[in-house]
Every structure is written in C-alpha cells, then in structure tokens.
Amino acid sequence: MRHLRRIDSPQSKRVELGGRFYLNFSSNDYLGLANDPALKEAAIQAIERFGVGSGASRLVCGSLAPHHELDEAIAEFKNCDAALSFSSGYAAAIGTITALLGKEDVVVLDKLVHASIVDAAKLSGAKLRVFAHNDLNDLESILQWANRSRRSSASPGPGIRRVLVITESIFSMDGDRAPLRELVSLKERYGAWLMIDEAHATGVIGPNRRGVADELGLSRSVEVQLGTLGKAIGASGGFVCGCRELIDLLINRARSFIFSTAPTPAAAAAATAGIRVLQSDIGAQRQSILWNRLEELHKELGKNFAKPQSAIVPLIIGAEQRAVEVAGQLLDRGLLVPAIRFPTVARGKARLRVTLSALHSPEEVHALASTIASVLSQ
Ligand SMILES: *Cc1c(COP(=O)(O)O)cnc(C)c1O
User: Fold this and answer.
1) Phi/psi at 176 (nearest 5 deg)?
2) Per-residue pLDDT tens for 191-229?
3) Alpha carbon distance 74, 52 (integer Å)
4) Which long-range contacts (CB under 8 A, 24 or more apart) does 51-56 make?
5) Among 18-32, 116-130, 225-239, 305-319, which is the least confidently predicted range?
6) By three-state DSSP, how is residue 357 classified?
7) Residue 230 CA: which ligand 1 atom is closest?
8) What lines the ligand 1 site, CB under 6 Å?
C-alpha cells in the first residue's frame, strides 16, 4: 500500500513536507527549471494572452499558437524535421506505438523499458518480444527470428510486416546507457525500425543537451525519438520527433493525441521557455554544474558505486523492506530520497534512486553522501 506525500512548496532542491523542509534528491528536474522565473513568466504571459483552457482537441479547435510554437521549438532543439507534443510522455508513447504497429508487426523491447512503452506495446496488438537488458546478442537472435517469417517482395502475403525495436537511451531506474551505436547498426542490418526514449537524456547528455542520439551523431538514423517535457525541460507534456511523414501520421492516427483536449497554453509556453533555457548559455552552465556534482557524489560514495552515466544514481539495497527503512532513516535526517521497489523494478532489486540537480551545492551533495554512508553502516 503506497501513499501520496503532500508537498507544500514549489518543486525545487528543497521541498516542504508536513511543515518541515527536506533536501530533495528525488526529482527528475535535473537542471532546476521547474520553478525557474523564465518558465513561470512564459506561463503567465500565455495565460494572459490565451487563457487557461484549450477548449478541445488540437484537431478540433484547440491547436493554439503556443502549441505550434512548442512543436517547432522541439523540432529545432532536437534537430529533427518535425515534432509533435502530447499531454504527457506516457500519452506520447501510447499514441505513437499504437499508431505505428498492429497485429502483423513485431515490437522488440529492452527488458528495462518504462511502463509507458510496455503498456503501449501490449495495446498495439503487435507480437511482443523482450531482450535481456542491453544484450545485443539476445536482440540479434530475436531479429533473426523475425526476419525468417518476414513479408517481402520476394515472399508477399502473410508474414511479419514491420519490426520496431524500442529502448531508452538512459534507463530511468538504473541510470545506465543503451549501446546506441551498436543498436543502430543491428537494426539497419535487419531492416527494423528503432525508437528511443530520451526522457532522462534530454538536458543532461551531449554537447547540445539533446540526448544520446545527437551526441553520437545518430539522430537521423533513429526513426522515432520520444521525450518528455516534464523532466529536465521543467514543464509538463511529452513529444515525438522524427521525419515529417511520421509526424503527419501521428496527427492522423495517434489516439492519445486525437481524442484528448490539448494541453493548457501555459504548459506549452512553459515547455517552450524550458527548451530555450536548455539551448542557452545558462543551460550549458547548468549541465556542467550537474556533472560536477555527480562526480563529487561518486568520489564521496566510494568505489563500491558505479560511476554515474546520468543524473540518476541507483544505490541497490535488495530487499524491499530494507530499502523502505533506509529511505525512512534518510528522511528523518532531512533528506528526501525515494525507495524504488517492485513493480517499478524487479523483486529483490529494491534501491534508493538518488537524482541530482544542477541546483544542489557541493555542501549538499557532501551531506547526502555522508548521511547515506552513516545510515548504510548501521
Ligand atoms: C517519465 C518517463 C516517461 C513518461 O513521461 P511523462 O511526461 O512523465 O508522462 C516515459 N519514459 C520514461 C523513460 C520516463 O522516465
């Protein structure tokens, strides 16, 4: 049985909970934009100009200027031909995967992909196959299997139509990376499509903060890129980007886009402002501060912990009960660090999921590391 914890302050590095302030090491607001003045001002301006409600789905009359500006800002930021925003990353995954796939198709997922992708894959009706986490050999054997019964010009008629491989560039609960270069060459060898979820890479990874695909120069080799506007971008919503044909298809087929009221103009405007901050010198500074803090945390925690590959630092505890106890002890000492357990992660793999933000000071990171060390040694 889980309970909601009421926070009485803005989302920031310090949050108020039950009348007391806690240092927050649990948010995905990696660059500290959720309460940023530039985003707040953009939302206020949008409310003044466009009001609070969108009135309808974007295909009816809800497609307001802020939504169009956001889609254009996303496409430019991600260096893609086109982009489409959704009310959440969850809605983007559901709408996109079900629009692309049906019964005649195969969807191949990394074992650790996010629940939104698992739900979407099931809902699509495609044949679902799962490969062991980041295991290229396992993936290749599935692609070989799929191609044996693939429809082609040489063998038209019944058989598998298309194959879509889906993974995350940075995994949400482990913070590790997918081997994207190798994934691209595999999917090209087998004529599959590749979709990557950059939810935790956007704003954190790469010289332009666009994520792993851009860092490796592979944006144009990944057919579908998924992201959220609710993590490092600091607002709310989700998006898909890729070629123009993909986006036109989604406008016509993605049911979570078509049959849902457009996000509020304030949310769209805040997200656009978040992207602009990410692209600016301030974005670059925040990213470099974040990586400095991650390095400091790694140094302090010691060699027993793997070097962070992202802003997510999992401290694996194992037993569910123990993870909850440790999180409770940290909370008593003023630190908000969530215990993540089944079904979010596998049974017996419960963990503390520490996330850092560019707003944390070196002293705060030091306090975190020394408190974790003292709690774990008890
Ligand atoms: C958070 C998350 C999503 C969903 O995005 P929302 O905008 O929060 O709905 C999708 N994929 C991954 C990997 C995520 O961590």
Assistant:
1) -90, 175
2) 999 999 999 999 999 999 999 999 999 999 999 999 999
3) 22
4) 51/265, 52/264, 52/265, 52/266, 53/261, 53/264, 54/261, 54/262, 54/263, 54/264, 54/265, 55/261, 55/262, 56/261, 56/262
5) 305-319
6) coil
7) 7
8) 88-90, 93, 114, 116, 168, 172, 197, 199-200, 228, 230, 238
The active-site residue out of 71, 168, 198, 214 is 168
pLDDT digits (tens, 9 = 90+) for 107-151: 999 999 999 999 999 999 999 999 999 999 999 999 999 999 888
Cβ atoms of residues 355 and 173 within 8 Å: no
Q: What average pLDDT does this structure show over 229-235?
A: 98
DSSP-derived pairing of the beta strands 339-340 and 350-355: antiparallel
pLDDT at 66: 98
Tokens encoding 319: 């037993």
The CA 175 to ligand 1 mean position distance, Å, reads 14
Length of the chain: 378
